[in-house]
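Technical annex, item 7. During the second reporting period the consortium partners agreed on a shared format for inverse folding records so that results from different sites could be compared directly. Each record opens with the tokenized structure and is followed by the designed sequence. A conforming record, contributed by the partner at site C, is shown below for reference.
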């Protein structure tokens, strides 16, 4: 795995939290994107080399809605950049981690993503993400 790509934070209202994080970080989100397949609306902030992703559920079936119901707003996942997501999935599976989606899927911000179950990662949801190359 390479660097931490971003930290994902579950929020109840993207509108309110965008304002809060804009005040906190001193920059507006550089991108707001809905991921229909995940039932989330996301925004991304850059601060120096780091990125923060805010996620709001767009319906009750969303993993973000369930997370907020159980734990409230807060850090939802840590994402690591990987160069080859398929080989990382294979490596992590054979090391005993539970991969939630063995087939990488398209996430926000032009990434292929896969998640590791927090039960096998010390309680932290881990996202792997690989840049999607534009053809
Ligand atoms: Zn993420």
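Designed sequence (site C submission):
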């Amino acid at each position: 795995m390479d660097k931490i790509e971003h930290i994902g934070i579950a929020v109840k209202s993207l509108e309110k939290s965008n304002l809060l994080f804009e005040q906190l970080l001193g920059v507006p989100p550089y991108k707001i994107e809905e991921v229909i397949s995940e039932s989330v609306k996301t925004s991304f902030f850059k601060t120096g080399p780091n990125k923060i992703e805010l996620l709001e559920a767009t319906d009750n079936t969303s993993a973000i809605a369930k997370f907020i119901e159980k734990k409230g707003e807060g850090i939802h996942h840590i994402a690591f950049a990987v160069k080859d997501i398929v080989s990382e999935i294979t490596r992590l599976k054979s090391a005993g981690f539970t991969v939630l989606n063995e087939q990488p899927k398209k996430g926000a911000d032009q990434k292929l993503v896969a998640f590791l179950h927090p039960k096998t990662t010390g309680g932290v949801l881990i996202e792997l993400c690989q840049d999607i190359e534009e053809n």
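The helical segments are 14-25, 63-71, 85-94. Residues 6, 8, 53, 77, 79, 127 surround zinc ion (CB under 6 Å). All partners now use this format for quarterly exchanges.
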